[in-house]
Structures are given as structure tokens and as C-alpha cells.
Amino acid sequence: MSVELPLWRALTGYRILTLCYALAIFAINYDEYAHPLGGALYMGVLTVWMALTWNRSSAPERCTKRFLMADLALALAGILVTAVVDTPARIDGGAATLPSIWTGGAVLGLAIKGGWRWAAAGSTLVALANLAERGSPARDTVHNVLLVWVSSIAIGYIVEVARASERTLARALRIEAATRERERLARDIHDSVLQVLAMVQRRGAALGGEAAELGRMAGEQEIALRTLVAGGLLPPQRSAERAEEAGQAGDAEPGGSAPDAPRIPAGPIDVGALLAPYAGADVSFAGPGTPVLLEAAAAAELAAAVGAALDNVRKHAGEGARAWILLEDEPGAVIVSVRDDGPGIPEGRLADAEREGRMGVALSIRGRLRELGGSAELVSVPGQGTEVELKVPRGNGKEQR
């Protein structure tokens, strides 16, 4: 719950209670006013205004700037009208204005909505109106004006600090959730993927031939994954150090030399060639008959995003679900659509997953496309499956066929 919500609720209660107080004071002193009917007219307007807007101050979405300005204007009008409908003797004696302490609600609303600067502006206007109504800066008037001015500014400042603290806490919680998810993934990778890659490397080296090449590739991926799990990507020249650490841990071939980190080829490559291996018994792939060229780095990230989308299908669409990959070659962009016939994603599930630190869609798919200057649009209908559209703009003319 927002730290502001109790303040808005308290303000609503304050406005209602102070209206009742102002009406009671006016009723008790009705016969003492110089023009009681004029005062009654204002109090009637104030009562109707409160009846129509009593719940506008219960939430920040409903308490708009326009409403606050109107509320303050009505309070200022009541203070100035008091000088007309009340007697000079009562005014000089320090009698309450028509809105009385209800005026404080208008200033407090400004403080909660806009902070201490809005509160200072509103309370200053109230002070000027009180001085104009009284005609001179009497001691009790100055005392009340300073009380409203200081208290409203203090509340406005407290609200600003509370908002900043709430934003900081929310950011810390997101970081903590992301860190927990990274640690969980690191444990899973270490306990499964790294062990399998190490075994493939050892078996490939023992068998020789084509298996040795497969083992070498597995060793490269093991080094890259171990580097990532250990705390981030390192420069290629440190790959040998990571390989030695892996050998000491028992996961790499003893005495073996570490291969260089894999390099991304330069120039455009065919996106279809990267996506075709995803096709299988449950995944269909369709694309143009001609190569769809894209810069190698962008094509690799796009293919990885497609792989992440297919992983989500396997994890969440259930057994027997099918997926379709459609590659489209547009003049200014490459578009890949991944669709499945699973149960779909419940409304709000992605937002909940992101708040809980599960960043599969946010990072593996949308994050990759965002870094490429593209976009990832996800459309899901419960019971009718999910479709992810990945769009990568072409960087320059070299990618055109």
C-alpha cells in the first residue's frame, strides 16, 4: 500500500469533520452576523460542494490539480465574504471566518499532492486573505496564519521524503528479486549445464574425429557460461585463466588448454539459417526462399530471443503444444513471429513475474530486442495461445539483398 493513501483518507475525514464544525459555529452565531442570509448562502454552497466532492480527496487519482484549485478558491472566497457578512466588532474580536478551519483542508490537499512548494503557495494565499478580512495583522491572526503555513509546509516536505523513500525501496526490491533469480539460474547452470558440457568435452576428446570438434565447442561454451556465472563477461584474453579454474574444479579436462572465446563473424548473415534448426516435430518454420540478411550480432540476438520464446512454450504451454515460427523480410526490418496453441498467458501474469524477479520475457526477449533498437510485442488470449512478434530494424544498406 502506498504511504500516501492513509494521508488522503485522513484528509477526507478532516474535510468532513471540519465542515460539520464550521456549520455548527455558523448556526450558533447566526443572529450575530450583520448579513446572516449572505453567510447562509455561502455555507449552503460549501455544503453542496462537499456533498459532490467529498470523495475526491480520498485518492491521488481523483484529487486533481483543478479540483484543488477550486477547493482553495472556495475557501479564499469564504474568508473574504466574512468581511462583508460579519460585523466589524466580531471581526476585531477574532471571530472565526465562515469556512473556519475547513480552509486547512484545501491547503493540506495541496501539500499532499504537490509537496511543500504547493503548500507554501496555498498557505500564503490563505494568509493574505485572512489579513485582508481582518484589516490589520492582529496577534491571533498572525498566530493562526503562521500555524497553517508551517504545518502545511512540514507535511508537504514529509510527503516528498516519503515518496522518495518509497521509490528507493521499490528499486531495491526489484534489484533484490533480480539478484535472487540470477543466483537461482547460476545454481541450475552449475549443477546441470556446466557438468554436461564438461562431460561432452571429455568424451569428445577421448573419441576423437568429429566428436573431438564437438568436444572443443562444448569446452568453449563451458568457459563462456562459467565466466558469466562467476560474475560477468571477461575479455577474451582471460579465457585461459577461466579454463584453468574450471580444470581445478574438476569440470574441465585436466591438462587441457583453453580455446579462445568464440567470436561473432563480421558482416551480414542469413537469419533463416539460424532459425531453421529450431524446427522439429512440434515446431514448424516458414520463411522466404531467399536469404534474409542481417548483421551477425543482431541476427544472433534475434535467434536467441526466438529460442527464449520457444523455451517459454515448452515450459508453459503444456505437453503436445505446437509452435510456429514465421520469418518475414521487410524493406526496413526483419520480423519474426513465434506463435503457439497453448492455454495463453493470464492477464497480469507477466507483470507479476517481472515484479517477482522472473525476467524471462523482460530480459531474454524484450531486453534483447530493445538493445537492437527493435521491439517485442506479445499478444496472448486465454485458451487461444500466445504470439510474440520480434522486429529488428535494418542498420544500413549493406544488409539489403
Automatic annotation (TrEMBL):
Catalytic activity: ATP + protein L-histidine = ADP + protein N-phospho-L-histidine
GO molecular function, one term: phosphorelay sensor kinase activity
One Pfam family matching this protein: HisKA_3
Subcellular location: Cytoplasm
Cofactors (names): [4Fe-4S] cluster
Transmembrane segments: 12-30, 36-55, 67-85, 105-129, 141-159
Xref: CDD domains: HATPase_UhpB-NarQ-NarX-like
Keywords for the protein's UniProt record, in alphabetical order: 4Fe-4S, Cytoplasm, Iron, Iron-sulfur, Kinase, Membrane, Metal-binding, Transferase, Transmembrane, Transmembrane helix, Two-component regulatory system
NCBIfam families per record: HK_morpho_MacS
Protein name: Oxygen sensor histidine kinase NreB
Provenance organism: Streptomyces klenkii
